[in-house]
Amino acid sequence: MGHSSAKDIFRALGRKLDQTSVRTPWTPTLRRILTLLYTEAEAELVVAMPHRPSSLARIARITQRTAAELQPLLEGLCAKGLVMDLWDGDTVQYMLSPMVIGFFEFTFMRAPQGLPIRPLAEAFHAYILGEKAFLEANFGGQEQVSVMRALPHEGTQAPQVTILDHESASAMVREAKRFAIGTCACRHERLHTDGKVCAAGLATCTSLGETADFLIRRGFAREVPRQAVDDLLVRSRELGLVLSTDNVRQAPGFLCHCCACCCHLLRGVRESGYPGVIVSSSLMASVDEARCRRCGRCAQVCPVHAITAPPGEIPRLHEAFCLGCGVCALRCTAQAIHLVSRPKRTLLPEDIFERILLQSLERGTLQHVLFDHPRRLDHAFLRALTGGFLRLPGVKQALMSEALRSRFLGFLRKHSA
Questions:
Q1: Which residues, in sequence order, are CB contacts of 20 under 8 Å at separation 6+?
Q2: Could you give the C-alpha distances from 227 to 211, 232, 244, 309, 401, in angstroms and in order?
Q3: Cα–Cα nearest to 269, from 401, 146, 403
């Protein structure tokens, strides 16, 4: 196959990554990130790979390379977290890592020797939080689907409210079979950008089940017993950290312990004004005015500034920004705040398959997931046709609506099998 110049191949790599469920709009900062992470040979392979998880044999057919040629390149990409190898028994499929959750986290969870970690930290920080293009592309259109969602701290809900298992961190831990703890990418990145040593510590990123399998196998995290995760949940409650997890109902892979000072998700909501950066739980804070002492403590501890409390006044809640995390309730000594059910139900994808499809639909990249052969003319035609259809006024909103969403996803699940 032909080889592009180094300048062209990294621009092509940027376009490829921008076609995933997490948009990565092109900027000079993105070029810097990509040139620091990928070799030219790795970039060329990723550009030629399909978007969907694929076997080595399929990748060989699509890229027109031999398995012997591909194996060391894929191994190197997996070792850096730029590609994920997904095992099901004795079979493996390879999938491109998006930026988040993906190669941003993997880079700072492991930070291999020889990696220019400080320049990378500065570049990622500038791209994700400093510049507007990334947040605007992924959350500037009132998107409902993000990669992560907040969980309520158990015991902070009102007496009449029940926290269901899919919103219970303890239930997720109870149901998982394997656990790992690794370095928090957000805190590690900030350590290298401005030297901040967060009181929450670095070793908090918790993974469960099959995600733990991948991170342990690739050296991004260490295996721990269930008790270690239970202890970490207790510690996070004491520190008033926000619990967040994969934005799926079934088999979430991550459980994060997020601080307001370092977490990209929380800072993204707070600094950009886009509430969809992290999906709220199905609950929200509510103030009991009779109990409230008007101390303003709840506003001080809210990680996304969803509460304002002028001196001597009852706190006011900005519902669109409330995460339903319960941190305010944990810190209210008067027990004047509890979590109550939201009047409008939040959208929760059933599994990762649905989340990726819905994210891609919202962000205008679904056609690249469905027709993912980079070289086939029929796939190029179908990408153009589908992309044009999805851009028609009202089509995206209709497919995301409750009336059509389940039938649409069922059709895609059936025809993607």
A1: 51, 96, 98, 99, 360, 365, 368
A2: 18, 9, 19, 38, 41
A3: 146
CB distance 128 to 250 below 8 Å: no
DSSP 308: E
Among candidates 59, 54, 63, 46, which has minimal Cα distance to 2?
63
Please say whether the dihedral angle defined by the alpha carbons of residues 256, 259, 264 and 267, taken in this order, is positive or negative.
positive
Total-model pTM? 0.94
**383 burial via Cβ count (<10 Å: 0-12, 13-18, 19+):** buried
For residue 317, give every residue at least 6 positions away whose Cβ sits within 8 Å of its Cβ, in sequence order, or none: 284, 285, 286, 287, 306, 307
Query: Topology of 6-98 in CATH?
Result: Arc Repressor Mutant, subunit A (1.10.10)
Task: Give the pLDDT confidence of 92-141 residue by residue, as tens digits.
Answer: 999 999 999 999 999 999 876 678 999 999 999 999 999 999 999 999 98
Where exactly are the structural domains of the chain?
A: 6-98, 148-341, 352-416
- Count of CB atoms within 10 A of residue 206's CB? 30
Q: How many CB atoms lie within 10 A of CB 143?
A: 19
Please provide the DSSP assignment of 205-226 as one string.
EEEEHHHHHHHHHTTSEEEE-H
Place of tokens 């550009």: 47
Which position has the token pair 């079934």?
250
